[in-house]
Every structure is written in structure tokens, then in C-alpha cells.
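Input.
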Amino acid sequence: MLLDSFMPLYHFNEVHSIRIHAPPDRIFRAIKALTLPEIRLAHILFWIRALPARLRGKRAARPIPAKPILEVAADSNFLLLGEETNRELVLGTIGQFWRLEGGEGISISNPQEFLAFDRPEYAKAALNFYIDRHHSVSWASLRTETRIYVPDPVTRRKFATYWRVIYPGSALLRRMWLRAIKRRAERELQTERYDSA
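Output.
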């Protein structure tokens, strides 16, 4: 996997997968085109995540944009680290995620900066979507994995506390994200079949 190239070592991770009745090219397009409003409960989970900052008057609530998630991610310190068409894409970000206000994010402009970054008070996170092709042309498995690398033991303890608190919401969001991709890919395939009939 490309993910191994960008984060072979990590301290925290989560993995989720789903079977989708669509070919890899449809699934890949659905990953790239999916918008946040298509993910059930996303607005609630993002509202909860932003609550501490809003209570401190740091940030006003923003509406969830109806543009592809990958574009939204690029606007918030995520970088597309690598892509293999119809197979895998990897995003990366660097920050102090455990801080109540979300912490100071580090803007990175290319994959080499992500790989070289080594400030101990920050964590690096990488997220992928990986399409596992099967012998059947009618379905494939879509897997997403999130890995976090925290080089400093003190910072790692801070992140571990944060991880215990946010993991249930993070896992729910990942599962909802996969289901939304499945709905979009399968719906588009059904629409194409209907139109060609």
C-alpha cells in the first residue's frame, strides 16, 4: 500500500472496510466526489468536535460545505500525499489534535515535507482509502486506515488521552464515510445501467 510509504511506523491506528457492489473505477470516483452532507451524522460529529472552541469564543460555527470532502480537507491542512488511480489515495496532516481549540496545524506543501517533519510536540496523521480488487468484476472491498505517529513520549501520552475520548466518534465517522461512498458508487452504477437499458 502507498500508506506504508508515508507512515510505515505509527503509534495509533484504526481500520474499517466495506464491500461495495461496483467496479474499482466507480468506487474511486465516488471517493473523490463525495461531499460532507452525504455522510450521515457528519454535521453532529463536527459540531461536537468544534464545541470546546466555540465555548471559548474562538470559532463561529460554519455550515458544512457541499463540495467534495477531499477539497474541504485540502482547505484545512490536509495534503494529498499519493494516489494510484482506481486503487488507493493517501492524505496527510500534521498538528496538535489533542488541544481543545484543535491546536496549531502545520501547513505542508508536498509529500517530502510531510516525511521530513520531525518536531516532537506535533503528531503526524495519514489516512488512506484502498480498493481491494477481487476476481469478481461485480464488487470490491474498500478499506480505510488512519495512522498517527507521535515521536515524543510526553506528546504521545497527551495524544493517547485524546484518542481514548475521540476514538468512538472517529470510528463512527469512518464507517459512515464508507457507507456514503458505497451508496454513491452503487447508485451511480444503477443509474448508468438504467440509462443504457
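The two ends are 38 Å apart (CA to CA).
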